[in-house]
TrEMBL record:
This is Helix-turn-helix domain-containing protein. It holds the Pfam family HTH_32. The lineage of its organism: Bacteria, Pseudomonadati, Bacteroidota, Bacteroidia, Bacteroidales. InterPro entries: Homeodomain-like_sf.
Amino acid sequence: MGRAKVLGLTETERLALERGFRFGEKHCFRMRCRAVLLKSEGLSSVAIGGQTEMSHVSVNAWVKRFKSEGIEGLKTRSGRGRKPIMDCSDEESVRRAIEQDRQSVSKARAAWEQASGKEVSDATFKRFLSALAQDISE
């Protein structure tokens, strides 16, 4: 293997990355800033991965994204992660299911599942109900 490539940073970039590493809101963003900073110090991607709990492939990908998009590129893009099963489009049908069977959450959930074609656990259904109740009371 050859020597690790050193990433050249401007003073502005270095300061932004240091600020991101120290004060970034999310742990993953702080680790990405740190990875880019370590790359600028000449560390190998494998060594950086050991310090940031990333694979060397991820380190290289984040460095590449930093080069093309700057520090904004190190933030997690919206639309990542699992989408909620239940959302505001389910409010009306949930209300109807509850009105039909106020005594049993399980029965109301079953009726809603039948009507919506979606499946959720009692816990998810209860969380959704409690969020609905919160919206109503505010």
